[in-house]
Write a structure and sequence with these properties.
Helix content: 55-70%
Low-confidence stretches: 1-6, 109-117, 249-270, 342-356
Distance between the termini: 62 Å
Mean pLDDT: 84
Structural class: mainly alpha
Strand content: 5-15%
Order of helices and strands: HHHHEHHHHHHEHEEHHHE
Number of helices: 14
Radius of gyration: 25 Å
Length: 356
């Protein structure tokens, strides 16, 4: 009898990589990174990004569509200028409105402008939380009331309160009631990001003191750290993997099944496949063969791969602005003005400010 040591149940890096690639190709690798639309428009680059989007949409339209686009915007905005329209939550709200009016002007259901996410993806709307709905409803109101400083201050204060309560309840469910998931992480991150910038906008409107923003920012920074730990623990219990039956031992070697990367294996012909579950509703069959005792180590290795694939640094940095950047955000006051003459938007310069 040949005694097998503990190392016999350690999978090769090739097997781990193959299974990670299978999950990635099947689009079941979770992503809890903040949506790029949020990180762009809730930043010092918001005004330049909004001008760039506005110019791009204009360039992609006929003259008749441009006229309908600007007329539709002017009707929604109640004029050609939007107070604080180039910054923070107002810029984000205008960005979403631009895409919606552009669809109407074209009379089609065409694609959004490049690298744009659908609002439901941005705001993480699902039946498990009201966070996305509260944020979306607030941002729908903003363009039409931005020029009335008293109204937008009152509205922002009200939605700030509702969103704060929902975020606290959501955080409690995730940390103490085992309601952790990728979707719940996305919802909390999105809600916290928008809530922080609602509070920043209230400083611009002289509705709250600067200290209110600072305490909220530190609270979310701390909360994010705890949630990432909880999410990692959640993945450790959620990920399950079984290998495809096959030649997982040849002498002392364990291997990826032949031609697995090409999506073909004799196991596939016989209907004998392995199965990988990342979390509920995220699963895929595969033809990667390995010794059954390697599954636990594979599962833990996949947790590390998935966490390392997240842009957690960007998430942390969103709530950890350097002091200079933080105060620059508070001082943002850029308005937005519609260009009534097409020649005015043909070449809008985009100056990106560093936030480092």
């Amino acid at each position: 009898m040949i005694l097998m040591g503990r190392s016999s149940c350690l999978p090769s890096q090739a097997i781990i990589q193959e299974l990670f690639s299978v999950a990635r190709d099947a689009s079941i690798i979770p992503d809890i990174s903040l949506d790029p639309v949020l990180t762009t428009f809730l930043s010092l680059d918001s005004s330049a990004a909004l001008q760039h989007q506005y110019a791009f949409l204009q360039r992609s339209m006929s003259k008749e569509q441009q006229a309908a686009f600007n007329l539709g915007l002017a009707r929604e905005l109640g004029g050609n200028r939007v107070t604080h329209g180039g910054v923070g939550v107002v810029a984000l709200a205008l960005s979403i409105l631009f895409d919606q009016i552009a669809h109407q002007a074209r009379g089609t259901e065409g694609d959004l402008s490049p690298q744009r996410s659908h609002p439901k993806m941005i705001f993480g709307i699902s039946s498990s939380s009201r966070i996305g709905l509260i944020a979306q409803n607030y941002l729908r109101l903003v363009p039409g009331i931005a020029n009335d400083l008293a109204t937008i201050a009152e509205t922002t204060e009200l939605y700030d309160y509702w969103l704060k309560l929902e975020l606290l309840d959501h955080y409690e469910r995730m940390t103490t009631k085992k309601r952790m998931s990728t979707v719940s992480m996305q919802q909390w991150l999105t809600g916290a990001a928008i809530h922080l910038h609602m509070r920043i906008h209230q400083v611009r409107l002289h509705s709250v003191p600067v200290g209110s923003v600072e305490s909220l920012r530190l609270s979310y920074k701390s909360g994010l750290g705890r949630l990432v730990q909880g999410y990692t623990t959640y993945l450790r219990s959620a990920i399950q993997e079984t290998g495809a039956p096959g030649p997982w031992k040849r002498g002392d070697e364990r291997q990826v099944a032949p031609n697995a990367s090409a999506g073909y294996n004799s196991n596939e012909e016989s209907g004998m496949l392995g199965f990988l579950v990342i979390e509920p509703l995220r699963n895929v069959s595969h033809n990667v063969s390995h010794h059954p005792c390697e599954s636990p180590a594979i599962q833990q290795a996949l947790v590390s791969r998935i966490i390392n694939a997240q842009d957690l640094e960007r998430n942390r940095n969103f709530f950890l602005y350097p002091e200079k950047v933080f105060h620059s955000l508070l001082r943002q006051r850029d308005d937005f003005e519609l260009k009534t003459n097409w020649t005015e938007v043909k070449s809008v310069p985009v100056h990106v400010q560093s936030q480092n």
